[in-house]
């Protein structure tokens, strides 16, 4: 059946033909039917909807079905498959199938042609997206904020659907892995990632690793935000590494107040009411400068969407050289206005997107997460210990995370000794419940709630920033001079 030229549609909004390349569509389909290996070349580039002509969509769908069933692809098998689907007459019968293959000599340029079709398809999708948003924007009954969320969601979904990662030959990857190994060997501490500032935690993790999604979870009052801020302080203030902190729960002043309490060792309630004594004012003047010059970038946008986070994160990495991202906390995000059957589906999309962001930017992403109430109903010391199944909307989070840490303070549940008889007063357990690249276990830290701060137990240290300023005891916060640790414990980045 000859092509009906009048079937081409015109977009009246733009007075243009929709982006299309129907001649190339026929060449691609013809090549697929004369070369049995051609489909494997284009299968990741093309989908039925990539084709502009409806009948070409049906033919490609038939070819796709044959490949899935591991059947040969040629003129006869495609014709039979279309007959089985009930589409043979609507595509123009056997004559059109024969015509497609008769004008193609080889499949030599099929990948190049397939990429052209993919670009045309993406252009049509963008036109459709813009047209829908434009129409709704003219509608005065539509809430603009909701439209923004919908636009973000649709565009993010479009970009995810059209994202394609090419394969890499192993040689450069091996070289990169050996370089990381050599760097670790040169450093006796064994750190290959960003240091956490906690000796035992670094022993387990070798630092926060590039492209990792790390979930830090806990029940309310366990101190997970304090732990995240302590990590932020260690990384940005002590190691001078740029960090982005996205706070969906607290505003930027509340967040900075807690950092001031942490760095200057002034009780949080005094920072709120301003009732500092002379010694505390002196300590504030002396230490707050270290916080002011720290490369910490705070964003306190409430209800941030994953699309918005992704856009801001890219800019911070590009413009500020940010090495790690923290999010407080995951369940307060939304999946860009897209519609989901349940909150669990939405959290799954958020979790998957955060892992994708970590891989794309090649930096660690640390996201705080709530635990459900199951732990409160369990009895005994071990019953109060959080488990992976306690993660709220846990399935996808547990699956996507490279590492899951629980912040657990047994004394909150009036448990004051562990199974080894260790005193747990003023202590917090950082439970490494999942670790894709290493072992699991517990790290015991000092918890100083009045300063919203976690410290190494019974350790003192010198700041690794230029000049090696004395920080003081990590136990009591005094400013007595202390000997520096070996220089090889500091990893340059």
Could you characterize the architecture of this molecule?
By secondary structure, this protein is of the alpha/beta class. The protein contains 18 helices and 13 strands. The strands form three sheets. A nine-stranded mixed sheet has the order 5-4-6-7-3-8-9-10-11, sandwiched between helices. It has a two-stranded antiparallel sheet with strand order 1-2. Strand 6, helix 15 and strand 7 form a beta-alpha-beta unit. Helix 1 (22-34) runs parallel beside helix 3 and helix 6 runs antiparallel to helix 7 (144-161). It is elongated, with a radius of gyration of 29 Å. The model is unreliable at 1-7 and 460-493 (pLDDT under 50).
Can you give keywords for this protein?
single chain, 493 residues, alpha/beta, nine-stranded mixed β-sheet, two-stranded antiparallel ribbon, 18 helices, 13 strands, elongated, disordered C terminus
